Amino acid sequence: MSASPVRARVAKEVAEVIATRRVGAYQHLTLVSPQIAELARPGQFVALAVGDESSATLLRRSFSIHKVSPSGTYGGTVEIVVSAVGPGTRWIVGRQPHDPVDVVGPLGKAFPLPTEPVPCVLVGGGYGSAPLFWLSSQLRERGCHVEMVLGAASEDRLFGVVEARRSCDGVTVTTDDGSAGHRGWVSDVLPELIDRTGAGVVYGCGPMGMLRSITDIAGRHGAVAQVAVEEAMACGVGVCMTCVMPVVGTDGQTRMVRSCVEGPVFRGDRVRWDAFEGNHARVPDDAVGAPRAGGH
Amino acid sequence: MTDQRIARPTDDRIDLSVDLGFGKVLPNPLMTASGCAANGAELHRFFDVSELGAFVTKSVMADPRSGRGTPRMAETPSGMLNSIGLQGPGIAAFVDTDLPWLASVGARVLPSIAGSSSTEFAHVAATLRASRAFEAVVGVEVNISCPNVANRGLVFACDPGASAKVIALVREQLPRDVPIFAKLSPDVTDITSIAAACVKAGADGLTMINTLLGMVIDTDLMRPHLGGITGGLSGPAIRPVAVRAIWQVRQAMAEGRIPVVPIIGVGGVRTGRDALELVAAGASAVQVGTATFNDPTAPVRVLHELTDLLVEKGYRRFSDVVGAAHGSPLPPRPVPVDERSRA
């Protein structure tokens, strides 16, 4: 339980929306946010306030950073991909060019990069693929062979297929309904891909069920899984304690850790998937300080 | 005895100092609220936590505690419900790591302590007293009102006798010059009777209010939304409840039903104007809680907004505003800028 994640530099800035466009079922926003663009690394996220300073929607919405351009024409920019699922995300999706948005970031731990040029497979579920293209570029700069798997329920819920072809050595697409690529799940194609490429690391970002499946497959095929989780957060900065999940520490003990500061990237085999039901996690009985009979 | 931590007020336009009693003078009345600021390091990335009058830590119990499963949070209009379940490292880790860190950055600390029995409260207080960084402690907040406990019957602050027992035991464990504040729940029939019991038992001040017990149902699943079923409601939605509770207790003090002790106001404060409302109702200090989730700089922003507002209204001393809504002398009329230039 190192205190280092909370010492990392972070900025709060009012960003101007300079571009917004529809991409399939999602909205892709570009924000002028020079301080965050300067500091961010792949796997980190930003937390956006909903509405102005008197908004009745208090809790920030967190988004994985899709891309940063530290020295763009308008100053450094940060790009995010948003799926409008509730009133908060609908407000964000409705922002127009030149609108201000209050942004805090970069938050959380980035994807760890291998020290040796090992082959890697990157797996994105839906718009969970958002941070993977940036990650892919950094891996390839280090000499890694990179293949990507993009999966979604249907073609309109895939994100970044064209960009994947540009930023990776190979791309496989799966959809549940067969509207694009292979009909089926990412887990159907992943084992063969790990074996063929000799991948040492599988990076994943998407729904919890998919991350669990990636972790299982990576383990069985001799690769390490690094997964970026999606947990409901209230603050994003480590103070509210709502985004916790059970994770095994280096001492072998399970603790309820904050996915915003100790994650969102975890080694897949450290996550106590057995404690999850859907997106909800119970406290495993063997966790440090777990409730005794009667609960707490 | 001099303590460099008892800093002097820094704003030369107004005296913001707050006397918590026993020579514990804070440079200003703004604090974090327990459970909304972790133990300092996270917010220190956004502002210097020693700028605040005091830093209130997350309630700590005797042993490490995992808290509850998820979901732990539900957003509500102008607020939220939480069901964390007092997750924490335990008092041994707190005094070993968190408190020394806060001391190292010059913060004045108001640790919040909790327990599932009065003896656990006493043990936590005793461990705190024996710790090497105890000189950073300007007071102790006794959380007798957390709603996220398995048995609602364990909310001490719903019963005057249970409250008094905890307060008396904690008071015994701490040096006389360290004031203790009982944190009260608004979910009671008569908050003044609980306040009176706490002060009689040795509380040197009161913190009001903790969250209100609430519940949200997920209408897709047709089940309670929170893992803990019920949770504590906080945020601007509850501010009028805080103002009412502070008002009632301050009124009871004015009527001689409760000895006069400082009140720390907390509940729904998001702006300097909000803070002033609690102060005018009778609060000598103000904590900022849920607003921090929306704006991680909220505690210092509220301090600056409150300072500007008081200066604008012509006050020279913060202490003159405390309880002003009860009919204390009216503030001096501010002199408009154009009149000043004419003079």
TrEMBL record, chain A:
<dbReference type="GO" id="GO:0050660">
    <property type="term" value="F:flavin adenine dinucleotide binding"/>
</dbReference>
<dbReference type="InterPro" id="IPR019480">
    <property type="entry name" value="Dihydroorotate_DH_Fe-S-bd"/>
</dbReference>
<keyword id="KW-0813">Transport</keyword>
<feature type="binding site">
    <location>
        <position position="240"/>
    </location>
    <ligand>
        <name>[2Fe-2S] cluster</name>
    </ligand>
</feature>
<keyword id="KW-0285">Flavoprotein</keyword>
<protein>
    <submittedName>
        <fullName>Dihydroorotate dehydrogenase electron transfer subunit</fullName>
    </submittedName>
</protein>
<dbReference type="InterPro" id="IPR017938">
    <property type="entry name" value="Riboflavin_synthase-like_b-brl"/>
</dbReference>
<keyword id="KW-0479">Metal-binding</keyword>
<dbReference type="InterPro" id="IPR012165">
    <property type="entry name" value="Cyt_c3_hydrogenase_gsu"/>
</dbReference>
<dbReference type="InterPro" id="IPR050353">
    <property type="entry name" value="PyrK_electron_transfer"/>
</dbReference>
<dbReference type="GO" id="GO:0046872">
    <property type="term" value="F:metal ion binding"/>
</dbReference>
<dbReference type="InterPro" id="IPR037117">
    <property type="entry name" value="Dihydroorotate_DH_ele_sf"/>
</dbReference>
<dbReference type="GO" id="GO:0051537">
    <property type="term" value="F:2 iron, 2 sulfur cluster binding"/>
</dbReference>
<feature type="binding site">
    <location>
        <begin position="61"/>
        <end position="64"/>
    </location>
    <ligand>
        <name>FAD</name>
    </ligand>
</feature>
<keyword id="KW-0249">Electron transport</keyword>
<keyword id="KW-0274">FAD</keyword>
<dbReference type="InterPro" id="IPR017927">
    <property type="entry name" value="FAD-bd_FR_type"/>
</dbReference>
<dbReference type="GO" id="GO:0006221">
    <property type="term" value="P:pyrimidine nucleotide biosynthetic process"/>
</dbReference>
<keyword id="KW-0001">2Fe-2S</keyword>
<feature type="binding site">
    <location>
        <begin position="88"/>
        <end position="89"/>
    </location>
    <ligand>
        <name>FAD</name>
    </ligand>
</feature>
<feature type="binding site">
    <location>
        <position position="260"/>
    </location>
    <ligand>
        <name>[2Fe-2S] cluster</name>
    </ligand>
</feature>
<dbReference type="GO" id="GO:0016491">
    <property type="term" value="F:oxidoreductase activity"/>
</dbReference>
Automatic annotation (TrEMBL), chain B:
<dbReference type="InterPro" id="IPR005720">
    <property type="entry name" value="Dihydroorotate_DH_cat"/>
</dbReference>
<dbReference type="InterPro" id="IPR050074">
    <property type="entry name" value="DHO_dehydrogenase"/>
</dbReference>
<feature type="binding site">
    <location>
        <position position="183"/>
    </location>
    <ligand>
        <name>FMN</name>
    </ligand>
</feature>
<dbReference type="InterPro" id="IPR033888">
    <property type="entry name" value="DHOD_1B"/>
</dbReference>
<comment type="function">
    <text>Catalyzes the conversion of dihydroorotate to orotate.</text>
</comment>
<keyword id="KW-0963">Cytoplasm</keyword>
<comment type="similarity">
    <text>Belongs to the dihydroorotate dehydrogenase family. Type 1 subfamily.</text>
</comment>
<dbReference type="GO" id="GO:0005737">
    <property type="term" value="C:cytoplasm"/>
</dbReference>
<feature type="binding site">
    <location>
        <position position="143"/>
    </location>
    <ligand>
        <name>substrate</name>
    </ligand>
</feature>
<keyword id="KW-0665">Pyrimidine biosynthesis</keyword>
<dbReference type="InterPro" id="IPR001295">
    <property type="entry name" value="Dihydroorotate_DH_CS"/>
</dbReference>
<feature type="binding site">
    <location>
        <position position="34"/>
    </location>
    <ligand>
        <name>FMN</name>
    </ligand>
</feature>
<keyword id="KW-0288">FMN</keyword>
<keyword id="KW-0560">Oxidoreductase</keyword>
<dbReference type="InterPro" id="IPR049622">
    <property type="entry name" value="Dihydroorotate_DH_I"/>
</dbReference>
<protein>
    <recommendedName>
        <fullName>Dihydroorotate dehydrogenase</fullName>
        <ecNumber>1.3.-.-</ecNumber>
    </recommendedName>
</protein>
<feature type="binding site">
    <location>
        <begin position="58"/>
        <end position="59"/>
    </location>
    <ligand>
        <name>FMN</name>
    </ligand>
</feature>
<dbReference type="InterPro" id="IPR013785">
    <property type="entry name" value="Aldolase_TIM"/>
</dbReference>
<feature type="active site" description="Nucleophile">
    <location>
        <position position="146"/>
    </location>
</feature>
<comment type="pathway">
    <text>Pyrimidine metabolism; UMP biosynthesis via de novo pathway.</text>
</comment>
<dbReference type="InterPro" id="IPR012135">
    <property type="entry name" value="Dihydroorotate_DH_1_2"/>
</dbReference>
<dbReference type="InterPro" id="IPR024920">
    <property type="entry name" value="Dihydroorotate_DH_1"/>
</dbReference>
